[in-house]
Amino acid sequence: MKKPLSTLMRASRTAWKGKPLSAALMVHKALLTVAPSAKVPRKAKVAAGPARPKPGSFIEDEFRCATGSLRYRLYTPIGSTRRRLPLLVMLHGCTQNAGDFARGTDMNGVADERGFLVLYPEQSPSHHPSRCWNWHRPANHKRGAGEAALIAALTRHVIDRCRANPDRVYIAGLSAGGAAAAIIAGLFPDLYAAVGVHSGVPLGSIRTLGQALSAMRGKAHPAKGAIVRPSPMILFHGDGDPVVHPSNATGFVDQLRQSVRGVLHSRSNRGRTVAGREFTRTRYRQAGGPVLLEEWTVHESGHAWSGGRAIGTHTDPAGPDASRAMADFFLARRRKGG
Fold first, then answer.
1. Residues 192, 231: Cα–Cα separation, whole Å
2. Separation CA 240–CA 306 (nearest Å)
3. Pairing mode, if any, of strands 117-122 and 265-272?
4. Which pTM was predicted?
5. What's the confidence (pLDDT) of residue 46?
6. How far apart are CA 93 and CA 102, in angstroms?
7. What percentage of the chain has pLDDT greater than the value 90?
């Protein structure tokens, strides 16, 4: 303080000598010395999350949360980045991985045509040696734990990362992936607006691997007690499937019948693809209501994704196009309340 005070005294004497300007400059200098210049705080750095993938990209990443970790692939369709796109979650079958499933179903190509994101969670061989989703285990039938909770958490992560439309989120799968998709859609109706099951098994009262295998061979394991109405569903099954008996498709229809009050109306039509594969399409609804279940029976087809490409495993290129049929079914629906 000594130097600033002496400066002020000199300024006072200078002012008395008739030099006010010089005195003012001295006072200003003294005040600067007493009050150091204020430092402007730096803006706090906020850790940025992963960027929204570019249109046309097919990225590979890993998701981690308290429930566990899961590798996945994510396709972002070509087009505008400003749109809040719908999201389709695709669960592969046994012996498949995310890339193989994407190639076989050509769902990325459909996404470019229709405009939606496609998420492919990938089962780890450490959780199942054949990469099957463990849909039959009771631990995976809960909202708060297991594979169902992990896939739901990954879905929410991708919704946030890609700014997807939360009211237009769907899930589908093949075989074990189809069975898992039906379970996850039932556990999280607040997340998924509709579900697609290809060559899958309805859960019913299945709780063990033995029960799951017997259901795949055609033995029914109907659910006990009241049945909650399933999410809107599109169902594909080959009537020549040697792995998952075609009667499992009927099991999904039976569950719907038991869950609704009143009469469930159905209407069927037959068709034939250019490649010569015949099919029957049946839609179920209540009077005046929307379609609750759309069932496609692909005649003489085996355990394979109907209309898929031969470049992928477990596909039937001659069948009707399951990927485009599912996309049309899904995009016509929104989550209730959304």
1. 8
2. 12
3. unpaired
4. 0.85
5. 42
6. 11
7. 75
Q: Are strands 58-65 and 68-75 parallel, antiparallel or unpaired?
A: antiparallel
* Residues 271-314: tens digit of each pLDDT: 999 999 999 999 999 998 999 999 999 999 999 999 999 999 99
Q: List CB contacts of 100: < 8 A, sequence separation 6 or more.
A: 92, 312, 313
State the Cα–Cα distance between residues 121 and 246, nearest whole angstrom.
26
Q: Which amino acid is at 313?
A: T
Beta bridge partners of residue 61, listed in sequence order: 72
Could you write out the DSSP letters of every residue in 135-151?
A: TTSGGGS-SSSHHHHHH
In tens, the pLDDT along 210-251 reads 999 999 999 988 887 778 889 999 999 999 999 999 999 999
| The token pair that represents 262 in the structure block | 């009143």
**pLDDT (tens digit per residue) in 70-88:** 999 999 999 877 789 999 9
What gap in Å lies between CA 253 and CA 127, rounded to an integer?
Answer: 31
Distance between CA atoms of residues 195 and 249, nearest Å: 14
Whether residue 196 contacts residue 171, with contact meaning beta carbons closer than 8 Å, is answered with yes
Contact 26, 7 (CB under 8 A): yes
Pull the structure tokens for residue 265: 């109306």
Answer whether 202's CB lies under 8 Å from 135's CB: no
The one-letter amino acid code at 150 reads L
Q: Where are the alpha helices (DSSP H) in the chain?
A: 2-16, 20-34, 98-105, 107-114, 146-162, 176-187, 209-216, 247-259, 322-331
Q: Which one-letter amino acid corresponds to residue 40?
A: V
- CA torsion 194→179→150→141, rounded to 10°? 100
Q: Quick one: which of 141, 191, 195, 148 has its CA closest to 173?
A: 195
Residue indicated by tokens 């960027």: 51
Q: Radius of gyration of the chain from Cα atoms?
A: 31
Task: Tell me the C-alpha distance between 27 and 39, whole Å.
Answer: 22
Residues paired with residue 62 on neighbouring β-strands, in sequence order:
71
